[in-house]
Amino acid sequence: GLEYQDILEWCSGVFPDVRVTRTRNLAMMVWGMVHTRHSTMASAARSAMNGRSYNTNRARLKRFFSWKTVTLRQICDRLIPLVISRFPQTRPVSIIVDTTSIFWNLNCLTAAIPWRGRALPIAAVLYWNRSSALSQNQIEERFMSWVLSQVPDGYQICIVADRGFGRTNLLEFLLARRVWFVLRVKSKVKITDHHG
Predict the structure, then answer these.
(1) pTM across the whole model
(2) CA 43, CA 58: separation in Å to the nearest integer?
(3) Is residue 113 within a helix (H) or strand (E), and if so which, with residue range?
(4) Are 170 and 177 in contact (CB under 8 A)?
């Protein structure tokens, strides 16, 4: 099974320029998520394998999350090529794109790679409905452009998405970038090729 030391070594390899204490705190949070299947500071602090008290671990995680010099995008910029490079180049790598409504008008757009019956998240952005100067379509296309820009050379990508993404301009966007796709569409949608 996956041990804490494995996660610590992985975090150190992905973020070699980050201070040791921050890398350990990141590993503690990842270990907590993997071990307890919850993504809260409390569950990570309780499951930490470092011999420290719950309160000490929770305080360390709180300091870690107040660290402003690393953004989610910077983490994903390193995570995307790291995960994709673990797959063979002999077949397309599927990336599942999905939008989840968190609450009210806050949404999370995610990209994940299917692996052993699970979806491994590799990128995410949060956005508010109707509060951005960008349309929903523009947000989705910018997100996919960013994810695709981090894919290592030599890999063919296949975007997999639900019918909320089944629109003509997204198909054209993906075709222009030579990206394969599997998109669900509503049953009444009529699809034609350039021959009609």
Answers:
(1) 0.75
(2) 9
(3) strand 106-115
(4) no
